[in-house]
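Sorry to interrupt, but I need a hand with the structure work. Go ahead and set the record down below:
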Amino acid sequence: MSKKESFVKGTLILAAAALVARVLGLVQRVPLDHIFDDVGRASFGVSNNIYLMLLTVATAGIPSTLSKMVSERYALNRPEEARQVYHAALLFSVAAGVIMTALLYIGAPFYATHIADVPESAMAVRAIAPALLLFPAIAMMRGYFQGRNNMMAGGISQIVEQFARVLVAILLAYILLQQGYNNTTIAAGASFGSVIGSIAAFGVMIYFAIKLRREDKQQGLNYNTTQKLPIWGIYKDIFTLSIPIVLSSLTIPVVNVIDTSLAVPLLIDQMGRESATAALGILTTRAQSVAGIPPVLAIALGTSLIPIISAAYARRDEGHLKKQITLALRISILTGMPIVLALVAAAYSVNGLLFSSLDGSGIVAMLTIGTIFQITMMTTNSILLGMGKSRISMYYVLVGIIVKLAASFLLSKVFGIYGIIGATALCFVVITILNLRMLKSIVPFEIMGKRWGGFGISVLVSGGIGFGLNQAGMLLTDLMPARLAFLITCLVVGAAVVVIYLVLLIVLGVLTKQEISSYPRALQKLLNPLMKLQPARVRMRE
């Protein structure tokens, strides 16, 4: 298999695993939303968000750095050095897991009571804490396997982890509900699903580790060199490369933790504790799970171009670099936008179809709107990381987080929960603008140039029609069961928005045949038949 084929296969495996994880995350939230009351939703959301942030601190950046260090040493036929690096990383992961678990377990009551102002969430936070014991080691193992060009191990472990987590969370929550426990205990039971997920993922990684060791013995790899790498030198190399990546990766988890930490304290004077807790529950359990869907496809498509960008930057090939940056950003925006539009236009029906009530449809819609800026932020971050500009990316993320904090305090006083959500979108916009300024200082490029007008018309028309269809679909609830009406409306709105959006992009010349030829093959197959709709005068302009 060629390097390109191997890379494409690896990218597809990891993208598929990420997509399955997002979908299963949403699948988990749906039944839990029906089981929980407002306190249960808020408690589960608080525990999940603080856990994900600490998990990112313990794992993000280091696996990719480890992957790079391992692959380099195997390329130089120094497998023993690669194994020493791997063992040092595992040693760090054990220490990090113990420290993170202890901090989260001991600090849970203080965080729940004095920061998040949801005292009932302390038990759920404590229930999820043991998951941090194994996940740092799992992350190191995934990084090592990626360095050995084995993406399958990490992808399968991620999928198995999600299945185990979701099934156990739902099952425990249901059993505790039937036993008559309150929502504080039920939320803790659901949170404990992450612990079982970590055990399942660790089991998968152990299986692949045993299998890989057996293969290494059969190939007679030389692990007998007497040269010992100094462990502190290994850690210096790992942390020098990984700390900026860790901080850049923290944007989404930190934003979510800011929301869970500040929502009730900022809203309690406006709407009372009960309503503020309910709003927090909707934001964390419903809105965040729905808003997590749009970035998956766009980021997977954009990420597949990052190694090409890295190679072009290393060669100082400005023409190729300009083309690939433009392509990565254009694909991310053009593929992410129709999913955002469909979910926003049908937010009321999506809420009614999936969850236990129609409360918070506006919260779901507004948080989902902001994901288009999350997509641009994450794509530009990836490009900067591909160019080796991780430190600059880290500084921009810190600026964005400061903006998020300040805007949450200011906007919540006027717009309540919508102000807090607006502050999240503003954070993503600021980071995107800073990233784009830095990229343009390296190489001049345009994302769409004169095509922004056609793109804007495509967005407004398809979104407007989708919203109108959703309003019409609401009338169906008088004629048939509500969930069936919501399902039909979601399907009609989704299909209409995507088709109208694509047709308008082609008719208005936002997409051209020449440009589509450089897109991934799957997109070419989808778009080429539609190019017949493009007027001749538009084709001639190209």
User: Anything to note?
Assistant: DSSP finds 24 helices and no strands in the chain.
